[in-house]
Amino acid sequence: MPAPTARLALAGLAALALVACTSTEPEPSPATTVPTTAPPTTMAPEPSPTPTAEPQYGVAAGDPAAVAAGMRILEEGGNAVDAAVAAAFAVAVVEPYASGIGGGGASIVVPEGDGERAVTYDYREVVADDGVVPASGTGIPGFVAGMGTLHEAHGQAEWAEVLAPAIELAAEGHPASGMLAVRLREDVGPGIVAELPQLRPGGEPLGEGELLVQEELARTMRTLAEDGPQAFYTGALADSLTTVPGIDAGSLAGYEVVSGEPVRGALGEHEVLAALPPLPGAPLVQMLQVAEALDVAATEPGSVPFVEGVSAAWTVADESAGTVLGDPAFVDVPVAELVDPERNARLAARVAPDAASRTSADDAQNTTHISVVDSAGTAVSMTNTLTHWFGSGTYREGFFLNDQLSRFGAIESPANRPEAGRKSVSWSAPLVVLDDDARPVLVIGSPGGRLIPNILTGVYARWAWHGQSLEEAVLAPRFHLEGRTMRLEEGTAQEVVDGLAAQGYAVEMVPPSAYAFGSVNALVVDPETGALTGAADPRREAAVEVAGG
User: Fold this and answer.
1) What is the reported pLDDT for 362?
2) Residue 10, pLDDT above cutoff 70
């Protein structure tokens, strides 16, 4: 595995030197003008709330218990990073199918509201030192190292204090959510229940509202609280982990978190901060810029032209993600080209009227996102995952191991090939949007796998270009183009369904029970007053809380 400084240098050089590279991204075919049904609007952030005496603080996360954990740390004097780490460990308890100690993730930190000082952290899973991807797809987990690195770099509360809410949730128990009850009965759930008695009290899968006590997970978290993050990699927990195919002692001990300057992209009066490759931050910025160039702002939100404009932008970004995106420690990624607004405007001018995305069997829609802003203005956007539901299904020490390395097979391209120490392309996409004074105005992310770029672009477009409130933007029906099949969330207006069918799309209606369209966890920041606005996405178990002021 390359040394930390070498890996950071490679990531930085990729962003600087590749302006001159010739991208392998094909140019889309001849142009069409996206029709409009409403006059264009300029950037319209959330209407400013009544000025507050003091800045507010808040947490948006995938479960109310995780929000409560983050808010508790903020109220006890911790900062946004402390709160995000606390919420992440709490999510590991209440959403064992989504993220946790056996997985990985990525975060963007904007210290004290200063976008110029922003740092992104990649603590996703890597291929072991032998270069072999096991049948389970399990990679060396980075979650614990990531949480430890974030806390060491930015935290101000004691490490043990930050883990305390999650330890209490695991030891004392918490009511199972409706989504957990569903997950235990579908897909891999029945097999999971058969192996773990705490998930099948009385011989039946845990039901909604029934108490889930996870004593083994509580013991593991106490070990981490007392011995520090390194207990996972070289300490008391490592021996158990090395019994898992794909994990060995040397690879565990050598795991490194990568940090650096976020991907940055201009977007009208905004600047978007996104995660480094091999995560799709650069293609997502590209998608937003192409949508801007296609004048999606001039379409009626949710209309056929709106859906077609965003989907056309997705075809460009999807091609980039599927051809040139990879781990920058191993391949050159043309980041500067991908986030060049002038180049993306030229690409937008040549998007075909019948543009189709790549097709993929990638069904990893399982992730969790946490957004936090504290009263000093520090913002954290954090996306963590096990990849598929319950990851690989392998269980050790109270938690599930990831199957992140399956992404090498699901996203096949010359830029995404497994080798020792390498990370795969996947779809996690934490974002922070800055105003023209480099202050955070939107902290956002979502689960949803391959659908994440469309989810986030749709919400951003409604909020920034159409002046909708965050709540309106989050509640609006979602969509995703796969090939020439337009997947529409149930609740989409019938005239839109019929209009898209008339345009030649194969329309597929997706029920809420599929959990396909994510759960946006976001906070809008008024940079003048420090006031926060959040919206709880009803598609999963999301919650948001704002206090202070």
Assistant:
1) 64
2) no
How far is it, in rounded angstroms, from Cα 454 to Cα 460? Answer: 10
- CB contact at 8 A, 484 and 505: yes
- Distance CA(160)–CA(195), nearest Å, equals 31
Nearest by Cα to 463 from 479, 454, 476: 476
CA distance 509 to 487: 6
d(CA 72, CA 272): 29
pLDDT digits (tens, 9 = 90+) for 221-244: 999 999 999 999 999 899 999 999
How does pLDDT run across 466-478, given as a tens digit for each residue? 999 999 999 999 9
- Residue-range domain boundaries for the chain: 4-19+30-49+260-363+428-541, 56-256+369-410
Lookup: tokens for 171: 């030891």
Q: Where does 261-409 show beta strands of DSSP type E?
A: 263-267, 270-274, 366-373, 379-387, 395-396, 399-400
- Out of 3.40.50.300, 3.60.20.40, 3.30.390.50, 2.60.120.260, select the CATH number for domain 4-19+30-49+260-363+428-541: 3.60.20.40
In whole angstroms, give the CA distance from residue 230 to residue 236: 9
Convert the pLDDT of each residue in 354-368 to its tens digit.
888 988 766 666 899
Region 181-208: what's the mean pLDDT? 92
C-alpha angle 516-522-523 in degrees, rounded to nearest 5 = 170
- Which of 463, 66, 472 is CA-nearest to residue 296? 463
C-alpha 327/C-alpha 278 separation (Å) is 5
| 60 φ, ψ (degrees, to nearest 5) | -125, 130
Question: Using CA atoms, how far apart are residues 488 and 67, in angstroms rounded to an integer?
Answer: 30
Identify any residues that bridge with 57 across adjacent strands, giving them in sequence order.
547
First to last CA, the chain: 47
Radius of gyration of the chain (CA): 22
Token pair in block for residue 47: 């209407």
Alpha-carbon 255 to chain mean position: 21
- Tell me how far apart the alpha carbons of residues 429 and 165 are, in angstroms, rounded to a whole number: 26
Largest Cα–Cα separation, the chain: 64
List Cβ<8 Å contacts ≥24 apart for 155-159. 155/78, 155/79, 155/81, 155/82, 155/85, 156/77, 156/78, 156/79, 156/82, 157/73, 157/76, 157/77, 157/78, 157/79, 157/82, 159/225, 159/228
Partners of 108 in beta bridges:
120, 381
Take residue 299 and report the two structure tokens written for it. Answer: 């379409």
Tokens of 359: 């097709």
Q: Please tell me which residue, 217 or 1, carries the higher pLDDT value.
A: 217
Between the alpha carbon of residue 483 and those of residues 218, 344, 370, 509, 511, the distances in Å are 45, 21, 31, 15, 20
| Cα–Cα distance measured from residue 85 to residue 443, given in angstroms and rounded to the nearest whole number | 16
Beta-sheet strand order (sheet of 366-373):
258-260, 119-122, 104-110, 379-387, 366-373, 56-61, 543-548
Helix residue ranges, H only, 22-79: 64-75
The answer to whether the predicted template modeling score (pTM) of the entire model surpasses 0.70 is yes
Among 384, 528, 526, 530, residue whose Cα is nearest residue 447: 384
